[in-house]
Amino acid sequence: MKHGKKTFVIIEAVLGILVILVLGFIIYKQNGHEPETIAVIIPDVDESEWSAFKYGLKMAAREYDTDVVIISKDNMETANEEIEIMNQEIAKGADAVIVKPIANRDGQQKLKQLEKSVPIMAVGDTFPEEPSGLHTIEPDHYHMGADLAQKLLENYRGNLIGKKIGIYSQYATSEAVIKRKKGICDTLKGSGAEILWSVSKENDSKEKINLQTQRRVDIVMALDNASFVEAGEAAKDNDLYGAVLYGIGNSTEAVYYLDAGWAQCLVAPDEFDAGYESVAELIKKRRNFFYKMKDRQITYTVLTRENLFSEENRNLLFTISR
Amino acid sequence: MKKMKNKPGDIQSTIMVAFSVISTLIMICMGMMVYWRFSGITQQNIVDNNRKMMDQTVDSIENYLVNMRQISDAAYYDVIKENDIREQNESIHKGLNLLYEANKENLRSIAIYNGYGSLMAAEPVVAQKEEPDVTRQGWFMQAKTRMENIHFSTPHVQNLFDDGTCRYYWVISSSRVVELTNGTDTQLGVLLVDMDYSGISRMMERINTSGKGQYFYLCDGEGNIIYHPHQARIDNGMNTESSVKAASSKEKIYDEYLGKNHRKVMVGAISYTGWRLVCVMPYEIFTNKMADVKQFVLLILLLMAMMLVFVNRIISVRISRPIMKLDHSVREYQEGKEEKIAIGGSTEIRHLGQSIQESYRQNSELMKKVIWEQNERRKSEFDVLQSQINPHFLYNTLDSITWMIESGKNEEAAFMITQLAKLFRISLSKGHTVIRIRDELQHAQSYVNIQKVRYKNKFEVVFDIRPDILDDCIVKLVLQPILENAINYGVREMDDCGKILIRGWKEQENIFMQVSDNGMGIPEEEIDLLLKDTNRVHKKGSGVGLVNVNNRLRLLFGEPYGLQIESELDEGTTVTVIIPEIVYSEENCRKFEEHHMPEDS
């Protein structure tokens, strides 16, 4: 009799607990969970070179039902400024951060500290120290430079003897630019070409550099989108004095200069993939505590006038021109 | 291995478990039925909603395309056919400009090419790219292949004009072959109307806002994708789409597996173009939609389970309580704690209780009767045993007295009569069976006195009794048969040297009364028979043997008590009476005679 009563009480208690749990779960679900907010901090995000990246962010945000907030601040030049903005966004409730790191060792350490509170994904550039300890999504900068130089060699049938080359980039300190340049130099080694100058628009001396003032060369190699567009504009205005343009870029302007014949070759990284995968990785990490974020390497395409509108490059143009 | 045996449970648990199992099964069945029904309705609702949305979008796209065709028709019939391409170029431009300006929200450009791919006129007026070679472009080739139709291309980058903005426009080209009037000649050309892709993509984006897994895409009749929300990922090879199957499917709605994804696909046809608007509904959305219903059903089931367990408990208690009470009272009855059987509950259980009670009552009466009868039988047996003494002894004594009187020994006869009177007084003892040892010794003394007179003092009798046992209980007429045996079989035949010693003492709460003689003794094989053989024929004495005494002692005091006989031939015999030490009182006496004696026996 007593045993039966005990069993009855236990069954009722267990059922009661289950009812409370299910009820709690239903109420929790009815209140709904706020979608995650991902802050994207990129200084020059309004530039068209980020169109494909932003399209990738948008697609991933829709796919994963999350909010992406893009923060762009002019004149954000130091790592400290960037870290301060990140802190502000985290204080506002950002659950994860996508950032184009303004690379220096101090900034890298601070990002590492910050990653303990929220997951961070670095895009657009790389870190001076490797392994960086931070997660990045980027193309293989060295091979991009190497493939660009290879295309140059192909176009000149491997004979660059006597050819003078000028290398132009936006930031001298950018790790991506340094790797790309190394890729070019390594590939052109022994080709007979002479790298006459290698300048950056913004450098440690704070001296503003422009292409017109540089010594005449046969080939200009632009190592990033901004320098490629600037070089394309210069070529259009005949300020390159007949030099042919090879470069790396991913904006409609860059494509336009290739299409219009002011450039010979454009190596375009798949920034859509970078945008999409950065959101995807961060969301996976947010939604699964045990998920280990991975570094991703995005692809790139070597574009020429001949293959620009081909079916294979349809997607690249589609994402860049969104 | 030891076999597990199913231990029968109590009725309440059995009823409750049975009710709970049945009700749980019913609940689960009901829950599943409700869930399936809701699931079916929800699925149907989702499909219906998407069908409505798809029908509306198909209408919108058709209207959009009809508008484009109307522009194309207007350009052809109202502008191109009405004007000479060479002489009335200005009119053509004006006409195209009017059309463009009226529809520029949806138009990117209108252009007329001759059969060799040379641009004849275009609106808006911008620079044509160097060497575009339109004859190798898809829209041009399509128009030339099937000249009677207006053709719609898949989206592509417009690669014809350079407006200097460094921008690339995604367009859907509608192209048709037109007759160009060139003076008196006519020549074939191609009219190109480039629709801004954003018009279509906006329409498609409007219906792709749910973000819960389902999506709509647009493809042409061959499965080439015109719009897809995951376009970039499909082009990257990260996603796949079964657009070819959708384009060729005869069914409007079907199920398919794409990889591991089970999905429902709904296809709508867009007239004239052969385009297909496809709605993809992964089965996850149905299950996700049903998640709320599932939780609600689970909650209801749990609440019902709680209620049912409670109700089952009440029902099982109500059904089983009278049975449990009955069972409990029967157990109590069996343990002798309670004699009343609990009667309650339903008619059947009451009847059962009453039957058991009646059965127990009858049983009890029967038992009482049996016990009474047994007591009576023992009592009568005891009385018979006790009464066996008197006739034998009386006969012998009276015979001796008669002999004395006849011999003129009146004084001795008087002594004998006096002793006989004492003997009988104690024998009667007011009907008591249990008497004081003192009285029993007096009785033995009287008997010895009578016998000594009878046998002319041929033997000596000595009493050695400890005074502290004189007031304890003993069954009357115990010593006399022993003395009788000692005299008749022991010392009677001896010549003045016979000796009988009667001793009495107490030891460990028992009393020992011992009669020893120095007679001829009893053979060993006869000792046992003396105490057991009731059919033994007595050759001498009263005929009442030691069996009688032993039986009486055991009947009254119980099994451990009685007589012990020790004998050696030519040495003598010792008979010991062992009884418990019980102080004589009226109460003890009555207790022994009325109650204890039957029970102990």
From TrEMBL, chain A:
It is found in: Cell envelope. Its main location: other. Residues 38-281 form the Periplasmic binding protein domain. One of its GO terms (molecular function) is carbohydrate binding. Gene3D superfamilies: 3.40.50.2300. The chain crosses the membrane at residues 7-28. Residues 69-96 form a coiled coil. One of its GO terms (cellular component) is cell envelope. InterPro entries: Peripla_BP_I, SBP_2_dom. Pfam families: Peripla_BP_4. The keyword Transmembrane helix applies. Belongs to the bacterial solute-binding protein 2 family. This is Periplasmic binding protein domain-containing protein. It comes from Roseburia faecis. The lineage of its organism: Bacteria, Bacillati, Bacillota, Clostridia, Lachnospirales.
UniProtKB/TrEMBL annotation, chain B:
One of its GO terms (molecular function) is phosphorelay sensor kinase activity. Its EC number is 2.7.13.3. Pfam families: dCache_1, HATPase_c, His_kinase. Residues 478-583 form the Histidine kinase domain. PROSITE patterns: HIS_KIN. InterPro entries: Bact_2-comp_sensor_kinase, dCache_1, HATPase_C_sf, HATPase_dom, His_kinase_dom, Sig_transdc_His_kin-like_C, Sig_transdc_His_kin_internal. Keywords: Cell membrane, Kinase, Membrane, Transferase, Transmembrane, Transmembrane helix, Two-component regulatory system. The chain crosses the membrane at residues 12-36, 296-315. It comes from Roseburia faecis. It is found in: Cell membrane. It catalyses: ATP + protein L-histidine = ADP + protein N-phospho-L-histidine. GO terms for cellular component: plasma membrane. This is histidine kinase. It is a multi-pass membrane protein. Gene3D superfamilies: 6.10.340.10, Histidine kinase-like ATPase, C-terminal domain, PAS domain.
